[in-house]
Amino acid sequence: MRQIILDTETTGLEPSQGHRIIEFAGLEMVDRKLTGRHLHLYMHPEREIDPDAERVHGISLDFLADKPKFHAVADELVDFISGAELIIHNAPFDVGFLNAEFSRLGIAPVDKLCAVVTDTLRMARDTFPGKRNSLDALCDRFEIDRSNRTLHGALIDCELLAEVYLWMTRGQESLMMDAGPGEGEGGTGLNLAFERKPLTVLAPTAEELAAHQEYLDLLDKTVKGSCLWRSIENPAPVPS
């Protein structure tokens, strides 16, 4: 199945208050590899941008003055995401805005157009409960370079999210993801590689072994017999 790593930037936080999408970015992934095909669009929102939102993404209304309105790019966007699995960080936010834009144009909602929506924020909260799970925090946790991310931007966030998603869903095998310039339609110039680091096993010191035995001796006294760990360390011989 095609997967689309997706992100949007908006004029504010609530589509129910008339806020609009001003930037859309999606990166196509097939078989856990970026294909090089992507879609990146700016749109004029036909309204003001909240100052707080502009401080986050740095996109001004002046910059968007000559950009198309959403209805002019809607068909291209729908064609790009249709039938795919969408990978989104905090999916309810982006899906809510997409559905509001689609509703204005009589287009079916995301759950009718796409196979499934995967929310990486929910995945992260399930995997790392009680920890910070923003995109920045996950990049730091997985040692992903985000030095080029000074402001929130849909395309750079998609690139980072692609790496985060692969780390969160990696198996025992090494993972490789390559998409150089000119590969596929609209190559992004990404060249990302992921390799599982070898597991380091440290042998206990003599002092640690002695402390371990002292603790087992204490358990033996507590349970008035041999503790379970003794049978694990020294299993009984199997009768022949």
From TrEMBL:
Give the catalytic activity: DNA(n) + a 2'-deoxyribonucleoside 5'-triphosphate = DNA(n+1) + diphosphate
Q: Which gene encodes it?
A: dnaQ
Keyword Transferase set for record: yes
Instruction: Name any cofactors this protein relies on.
Output: Mn(2+); Mg(2+)
The top EC class is transferase
- The name of this protein is DNA polymerase III subunit epsilon
Q: Where is the Exonuclease domain?
A: 2-174
Tell me which EC number(s) this protein carries: 2.7.7.7
Q: How does it assemble?
A: DNA polymerase III contains a core (composed of alpha, epsilon and theta chains) that associates with a tau subunit. This core dimerizes to form the POLIII' complex. PolIII' associates with the gamma complex (composed of gamma, delta, delta', psi and chi chains) and with the beta chain to form the complete DNA polymerase III complex.
Q: What does this protein do?
A: DNA polymerase III is a complex, multichain enzyme responsible for most of the replicative synthesis in bacteria. The epsilon subunit contain the editing function and is a proofreading 3'-5' exonuclease.
What keywords tag this UniProt record? Answer: DNA replication, DNA-directed DNA polymerase, Exonuclease, Hydrolase, Magnesium, Manganese, Metal-binding, Nuclease, Nucleotidyltransferase, Transferase
